[in-house]
Amino acid sequence: MPLPRRTRIAIAVGSVVVAVPVIGAIALASIDWNRARPWLNERISAAIERPFEIRGDVALAWRQQGSILPTPHLVAKDVHIGNPSTMHAPSEMVSVSQFAFAIELLPLLRQRIAVPELRFDSPKLLLQRDADGKNNWTFGHDDQPSAWKLDVQRVVFSKGTVRYIDAMTHVDASANVDTLNDPRYGVAWQLRGKWNNQNVSGSGKAGAVLSLQQQTAPFPLSADLDLGGTHIVFEGTLTKPASLTALDLRLKLSGSSMERLYALTGVLLPETPPFSTEGHLTANLGANASHWVYDQFTGKVGQSDIAGKLDFQTGQPRSRLSGTVQSKLLQVSDLGPLIGADSNASKQARGAEERQPGNKVLPVETFRTDRWTAIDADVNFKAAQITRDKNLPIQNLETQIHLKDGVLSLTPMNFDIAGGRFTSTVLLDGSGKVNPHAIRATLKAAASHLQLKQLFPSIDGMQATVGEINANVALAADGNSVASLLGSSNGELKGAVTQGSVSKLMLETMGLNIGSVVLTKLVGDKQVKLNCMVTDFAVSNGVMKSRLFVVDTSEARIDINGTVNLGNEKLDLTLKPDAKSVRVISLRAPIYVRGSFKDPDVSVDKGTLALRAGSALALAVVAPVAAIVPLVSTGPGETSGCQALIQR
């Protein structure tokens, strides 16, 4: 019985539909694909807008690739991909001894080269960026884009080499890549080279399969690197590999100083003691700007703890750093490198070029103002407690670190201390606009109601003290170090201490060694009641000149006159003691404090001593009892007049 006409037509059409792909597959399999190399080279070059060439043999195989019909798999040997015409780079971007790729047939009708998978064997990859920011890994389009589009879904890596050259960050580093039998990672690599002119070395792992279509598929990364003495360890994923944008890493950093991170990140950080941190790093790396966030980090700087979040964004006219950093316990000694006040051994450990001279007290290490204009910053810093030793009661430090166009300000920088409050504002203009060779600095500070018994709780006799300290400082200066700034400063210092006690031990605890020597000359090493101390210095070109400097104790009133030269660190002070009670030991001779900050010289006026000793000898001939009269001082009594001094 003959089939119905419609059935015969359907069978015929179906036969044609099946026969055409079969005939096409047979034809494709019988083609000598080496003859097709020029066509492939031309079409792929047009699609990726850069030279593409298969120089070796080309073969075709049919494989099932997840679809109903098998797809052709081309295996090409000795393949080369050049750089875009906009790059000034003589080297190729990629050369591969052999790689295989599948091509879906139907998309070719729409001028789209769809490649489900690229497999590389012994690749040599060069990633390069010029000084003007142009790179060879961005497959962009020019004003007349090609009609052909390339769609690569997955890339499979094997043994090979990768070299990265970046003229913007001065990087030239190479990695040897090898396959790895690991459930998470597919390749391992060893790295050596230069990064910002510093040696970089290390090793790491990466996934073997890089998905370029499924942008949320994680591509695993891990590394252990050494960059100029800074240790970097990270583990995480790359989640948008098509544009090399999204990084999500667990990051550990450690090194001799945070300042060394500038060569790696371009982020301006201060000089510090050895540090270590660990936190969560995420990044979006755009072609013209990038955004990095280091969140939930914790760590140590010297003996101090730190924690917080930092946000770094590149852009114009300069990059910007913002965030918050907290410290539960901050050691005073860990602040020394900030201003170059640490030891020479510490300077050598953190790589500082300038050493502190043996005859200088004020730090001479220069500030690196050449980097201040590279970044803007707005970072809040808080420290719950600052300690020099366990008995120094400083709490609740807070400052806003603001850097814009080379001008650094700490506005304000305040903390609680000894039941009182220290407030200050600091402005350091390192932009070079005011002075191209130095910082223009201004300081305004005030200490109010500092309680003496809280300031020195461990010193005998201080617990009965009820006095306090109040002081004001206003200075302006030009210089490029702490020493040169103070040596050129202008302004004034005023302060008052009331109802305390003083001893050589207390002065040594405060670090005032000059004062301890003077006190020993006056009264020996014992506790003396301090009614008040009032100071008023005018500062001109680094020379502090006393307008009023009086120390009033239970034993004597001491008037101090003279100068303190901050420029050459020289002392020239004269102390005139006047005893208040009848004391045979009092000679009321002036005491001179001279010499340098490092090696002060304290002496008693020999002329006065000789005169008073000669008078005593003459009287001894006449009346032995009267011989002690020149050595006796009655003084002005207990009325100190402290209130009048403080109100001046």
UniProtKB/TrEMBL annotation:
Under InterPro entries, the record lists:
AsmA, AsmA-related
Q: Locate the AsmA domain: which residues?
A: 11-168, 170-547
Q: Name one Pfam family in it.
A: AsmA
| Stated name of the protein | AsmA family protein
Protein's organism: Duganella levis
